[in-house]
Amino acid sequence: MKSLGNIVWLLFGGIITALEYIIASVIMMVTIIGIPFGLQTLKLARLALWPFGSTVTDSGNSGGCLSVIMNIIWIFIGGIWICLTHLGFGLLLCITIIGIPFGLQHFKMAALALTPFGKSID
Hints:
Elements: H1 2-28, H2 35-49, E1 56-58, H3 65-93, H4 100-114, E2 119-121
Antiparallel strand pairs: 1-2
Helix pairs in contact: 1-2, 3-4
């Protein structure tokens, strides 16, 4: 069932979302300062490609206060808007019964988009 959900997800926007994250990641990685943020965007692209069956967990070695500082910077440079976009799509998809599983995947992506540093995808 997870594979079917992922295939439908890819056909109806997952590939486009992942490509947008990959393009944004490459643009961020042009500068040395942007590399950590580009890596987090790649994490979002990975989740956008195969969200069903993936879980977002706090990594054991979260980096301490550096992770917190990077998450605060992330929120201010655009993480809040990415999170709000995924929340909006999640709410829109949860209007119908068929869309609820896809809406839940957007909620999972919204949580990762708000604070990606210190989290991993399993």
